[in-house]
Amino acid sequence: MARFLVRRLFNYVALCLVATFLAFALAALTFDPIAKLQERNPPPPQSAIDAKRAELHLDEPIPARFVHWLGDAARGDFGQTVVNTSISDELPRRVGVSLRLFLLGTVVGIGLGVILGVASAIRQYKFSDYFATLFSFVILSTPVFLLGLLLKYGALQLNTAAGAQLLVFTGETSPGFQGSFGAALLDRIQHLVLPTLTIALGQIAYYSRYQRSAMLDVLGSDFLRTAQAKGLTRRKALFKHGLRTALVPMATLFAFGFGLLITGGTFTERIFGWYGMGDWLVYGIEQDDTNITATVTLFVAVLVLISGWLSDVFYALLDPRVRLR
Amino acid sequence: MTMIDSDVLADPGLPPGPDDALLEVSDLEVSFPSEDGRVRAVRGISYRVAPGEVLGIVGESGSGKSVSSLAVMGLLPPSAKISGSIRLRGQELLGLSDTELSRIRGRKIAMVFQDPLSALTPVYTVGDQIAEALLVHGGRSMTAKAAAKRSVELLDLVGIPNATDRVNAFPHEFSGGMRQRAVIAMAIANDPDLIIADEPTTALDVTVQAQVLEVLKTAQEVTGAGIVLITHDLGVVAGTADRVVVMYAGKAVETGTVDEIFAAPRMPYTLGLLGSIPRLDIGRGQPLVPIEGQPPSMVALPPGCPFGPRCPLHVDACDQAEPELLVAPGASGDHRAACIRTAELAEADAEGGELAAEVFDAHVVDTSALHTVPRTEREVVLGVDGLVKHYPVRTGSVFRRKVGAVQAVDGVTFDVRAGETLGLVGESGCGKSTTILEIMGLEPPMGGSVQVLGSDITGLSKADRKRIRRDLQIVFQDPMASLDPRLPVRDLIAEPLEVQGFSKEQIAQRVPELMRLVGLRSEQINRYPGEFSGGQRQRICIARALALEPKVLVLDEPVSALDVSIQAGVLNLLDELKVRLGLAYLFVAHDLSVVRHIADRVAVMYLGKIVEIGSVDEVFAAPQHPYTQALLSAIPVPDPEVERRRERVLLHGDMPSPANPPSGCRFRTRCPLFLTLDADQQARCIGEEPLRRPAQPAEPGTAVVDHEAACHWARIKTVV
Amino acid sequence: MTTTDVGAGTHVPAGGGAPVEVPSGPAAAETEGVTRGRLVLRRFLRNRLALAGLVTLVLLYAVSLLSPLFAPWAYNQYDYTAFLQPPSPSHWFGTSQIGEDVFAQTMRGLQKSLTIGLLTGLISIVIASLVGASAGYFGGWVDRGLMWVVDLLLVLPSFLIIAVISPALRGSSWIWFVLLLGVFAWMITARILRGMTLTLREREFVKAAKFMGAPSSLIIRRHILPNMASLMIIDVTITVGATILLETGLSYFGFGVQPPDVSLGTLIRAGSDAAVTTPWLFLFAGGLLVISVLAVNFIGDGLRDALDPNSRGGRRRQKSARKSASKTKKVATS
Ligand code: SF4
Ligand code: SF4
Fold it and tell me: Which ranges constitute the DSSP H helices of chain A?
């Protein structure tokens, strides 16, 4: 079992590196930071441009540049941005911001999604089931950026109605906020609610759909009948045997759900002015910055693969058939 | 959760049954909503079970036999509409709430389901699941520890070796037979009054079936429970049941004691069922009775006898009203049948099988014309010599490493000569399917050689291979799976012709011809496979296989997916085609009685090797390998008298993994003969692989013509 | 044998006697005429949501295409008398800061977004069925190689790759963008189709064809692909929905459809800055976006119900949970 997971991990590392290289190469091919520089008014002197070229190693072949970047990255130096700030200095803060959003979104999403899905399956074809299904469909048909915008719009109405700043929708803390721990926490929470909701809604809809179908599959299963035949009430059989088994496929969904979350997270960060990794990516592309792009790609690839790996682990934990492989 | 017609609950008209009735079901009706309307799955059935009695409920798929028993358990889906009465020791069960029922289920009534593979929750250990049954009903006195201890005892009772260890195993670590035992252990955990077993052995191999039936018997002895045994297999009923209910189209059409039903069936359907089963103890001389047509749709049943459209005795009066279940004329006691012509049947003084053949006008197909030339002088159409096929066993899924080999086929030798049928028999996992796939693949084998019509398949060119395919065709087990559901019959049958490059005109002429040959109407040429019944689909498969006029037809369990009544028709067709077209068959089956009926020679496989081979008459008359003997003795004979007399050779445990077969004789881990040997003799079994040697003659002094067995200590034992 | 008169004078139905005879007709007649296609259609039409989805989608597309014929303003007209006006009889969806008619703009964006979604769905299914069927059918190295590529592309969210490439698209036609979307939309479908091919390959009718000597290309064309058709149809709808979401998301950030082309995404972006004071600038575009994707998803769900009755409403067997898991990934991308 452990060997299996280790082997998986090894393959993931290889995938990670190739993926990052791919993004790096694509970025290096399409980006043209020098053109940006030349567009400046007044145009910088040729010497400055040449210096920039050299600094960004633009004249080297792309694989060499990648190896160079990767070598530095392995030592914790992810290079400079086009405007000469250190990526490594900014990285931890941004990673922290993104992870907070992702983790909260995942936990809330899975928790509520599973509950909603199970409830909906047990009450199949009742009003609440239709309602939950419709909710999921609408959420899954709404792009995250639109959801964010709408929530923002709604929060504004709420604030106006309440006559107070209940929910804040820019940044993750109020700039220069000072106060007691409790007040600081409240401030954070005020900032947190909307982005987390934006990202969690999609996750809830996603997980609930699948939990519902997994649960319905289990509802017709022979083993549930066996459990009832030995004297468990339907309810007890459902929870003890049904739900436990229906959770197994959820483990494999986790990896996919997380991939979805990353894309959504990027939009969410942008809309609510959180300076996380997603925001950085958009900024990096706008600035034609290969290093930022590659760094964010590496981060994303690592996250995707960790989620994939975790997915395997959860699966193994939940399903004895895999555990003993 | 069950819906009941309110008047039923208050029905005072039903007299209370005699005190000794354990379960009394009366006028039970069950219907379900469906796309086409309400399906009346059970249309008023009544039966009773006395304590300690075994009641067999027999019927084909869709006859409502399972639905009626699920109704007793209160386990039908909420959409089912149920009416009638179900009383357990006088207590009405219909209308009880789920909570009330849950106190009865598992404690007073227990159930064993058909498919042991899915009947256990995959994520809990077997022990926990058995203990759970004890804990839910045990009240406070039952501690988790006591329950765990008791589950080990229960597992031991149902014959699971090393119960102490195995109790912690997960269901997927158990074989099908072991899982079914675990389910039985669960069922008897609380010493129930009634056990309902719904096709408990259908998904299992015959030797395992024999084991499980034995366990069920033990369970009954231990608990003294009444048993309702639901099955489609009259053979199983003959050996186990005291009384029988035959169901057709949601109703009981005949009831009586097991002897009455088998000796003097009074309803044409029962008669047909009895006549349609190939019997191990009769063989080729037995005419098989096909019941043509299909059971009626349960949505809109026309008035009159539901069996009418398939009944050879049908007269106009049959369509007036549905016949009632009445005491059969001349019958003693409680033998009832639902047919207006029972009296005439009673007058006929022929016994079951013969009567069936007579009523259904079935004949024995005469194949003697094929055998005018002695076997040794006929051409070898398919020769297999020392065939080997090993599969690699790999680990993981990313970087796969080979860790061993499944020795699926390990040195198999046989030949099929023109005009004869070789039956290749064995239980699942014995390598018989691999063998034929290897032959059909026409790829150079891993070891050994395969010759088709004299040419060795190793070193064939692509064109040669294509040519050989014309002479070698296959019919698969599941006719639904082997016909592309998206193509009409015409294209299906034409496919081999197209592949071999026949012209459009030739194809257009040949396809209707083929359809007629297998007994399909050529108007059906544009239909899709989904519109045909199982038996008809298998006929399409046969037509397709015959399109190129092959010399050899490989038949991979061609009837095992069909209901018995349909099976007989297909077997008769195969027999007839063989004579008409001079075909040779390689007939793969797990059912020795089918092989006995259709084959000229038989080869028995175990764990990738052939353990016994020879002409059907010789092998069945004097089986010499202990495995053949066990296999034969495990097959139930649809005759209660014979069944009572028979002595079972029971095998222990399951077939070992072909990835790691035992040394020496591969059968030694389960061989009943091995256990009786002394140490020296055993050492030979362990150390030396037995080779195939000519068998002993059935009667001293006679010569053995065609019979070999691979056992060091082979001896004759008559088991049929 | 003792002869009795049981058989005499009775009516023997067709097929009752000789073994090789026509099985009697009633059962066959019952199912007569219900071909699969008609059955599927019947089931689909019975699903009211799916039908509503189909009607809505067709209507939306038709209206967006035909709107120039009846709308009072064209997308490239400016009304200098009405800047930033709320909806009115002459400007149904209001006007923008520079006097453009929001209705005309929105219709144009809707048309582009729907077209992009449909085209991408087609491109994706072509690539996916090619890759999926060959990986599954041939197995071995072909399979491993192709699946590694799939894995690789799955590690990178397609949103990220397209965003990275987008600078190269500045100033070029939206067709390039469609190709790009298509090239990164097929992986999950390919995986599902591969899984399905693997099972189909073991199905007996494929084996039967192989044993007749049919070449691989014929088997794939004749047996494998047609039997995956229902799945492919379902998957196309899912891809279309997912693509519309992804496209509008990318366009919203300026990585997608480039001016002068407009899509619902660029419209929402343009309107969202002043979302609070002039909600009509983005609400109509946003609303239509949600409605179209919802319609597509309802169609997909209805198709699945109709084509794959076992799945009862998008539920698949547990075994395939892993595969189907991938499906909603697409549904909800962006
Ligand atoms: S009632 Fe008529 S049709 Fe029915 S079984 Fe008896 S003879 Fe046959
Ligand atoms: S060789 Fe020995 S173990 Fe094998 S079948 Fe004969 S007696 Fe049994």
Answer: 2-30, 33-39, 46-55, 62-74, 87-122, 127-140, 144-162, 181-219, 222-229, 234-237, 244-246, 248-271, 277-286, 290-318, 320-323
Q: Does C266 reside within a domain?
A: yes
Whole-Å CA distances, C59 to B611, C50, C66, C190: 71, 14, 10, 31
Confidence of residue B428 (pLDDT cuts 50, 70, 90): confident
Judged against a pLDDT cut of 90, whether residue A112 lies above it is answered with yes
Q: Say yes or no: CB of residue B325 within 6 Å of ligand 1.
A: no
For tokens 């003697």, the residue is B368
How far away, in angstroms, is B322 Cα from ligand 1 center? Answer: 9
Closest C-alpha to B245, from B566, B23, B79? B23
User: Sorting pLDDT into bands at 50, 70 and 90, what band is B2?
Assistant: very low
Look at strands B3-4 and B81-88 and give their pairing.
Answer: parallel
pLDDT given at position C132: 92
Write down the pLDDT at residue B613.
Answer: 94
Q: Could you count the other beta carbons within 10 Å of the beta carbon of residue B27?
A: 15
The answer to whether residues A301 and A20 touch, using CB atoms and an 8 Å cutoff, is yes
Structure tokens at B688: 């030396």
What residues does B555 pair with on adjacent strands?
B475, B587
Share of chain A above pLDDT 90, in %: 4
Tell me the CA–centroid distance for residue B328 and ligand 1, in Å: 14
Q: Which of residues 248-307 of A touch C (CB under 8 A)?
A: 248-249, 252-253, 256-257, 259-260, 262-264, 266-267, 270, 281-282, 285-286, 288, 293, 296-297, 300-301, 304-305
DSSP 8-state assignment for residue C257: S
Rounded to whole angstroms, how far apart are CA atoms B230 and B71? 13
Q: What are phi and psi of C115, to 5 degrees?
A: -60, -45
- Count of domains forming chain C: 1
Inter-chain touch A230–B113, beta carbons under 8 Å: no
Spatial separation of the C-alpha atoms in residues A136 and A138, rounded to whole Å: 6
Q: How far apart are CA B150 and CA B170, in angstroms?
A: 18
Is C303 inside any structural domain?
yes
Range of lowest pLDDT (B621-630, B644-653, C34-43): C34-43
Nearest to C2 among B312, B350, B544 (CB): B350
Question: Is residue B31 classed as helix, strand or coil in its secondary structure?
Answer: strand
Given a contact cutoff of 8 angstroms between Cβ atoms, the answer to whether B196 and B109 are in contact is yes
Domain membership of residue C324 (yes or no) is no
CB contact under 8 A, A30 and C164: yes
The single-letter DSSP state of residue C221 is: I
3-class state of residue B412 by DSSP = strand
Quote the CA–CA distance of B628 and B622 in Å, as a whole number: 10
User: Per-residue confidence at C31, pLDDT binned at 50, 70, 90?
Assistant: very low
Is residue A116 packed enough to be buried (19+ CB in 10 Å), middle (13-18) or exposed (0-12)? buried
Q: How far apart are CA C51 and CA C43, in angstroms?
A: 10
Give CATH 1.10.3720.10 domain extents, chain A. Answer: 93-268
> What class is the A93-268 domain?
mainly alpha
Q: Is the ipTM of this complex over 0.85?
A: no
Q: Find the mean pLDDT for residues B111-125.
A: 87
Record: contact B122-A221, CB cut-off 8 A: no
- Domain that includes residue C246, residue range: 47-69+91-318
Q: Residue C131 maps to which CATH number?
A: 1.10.3720.10
Would you say residue C283 lies in a domain? yes
Residue B441: per-residue pLDDT: 86
**Backbone φ and ψ of B406, nearest 5°:** -80, 120
- Region C81-102 average pLDDT: 72
B615 residue type, one letter: S
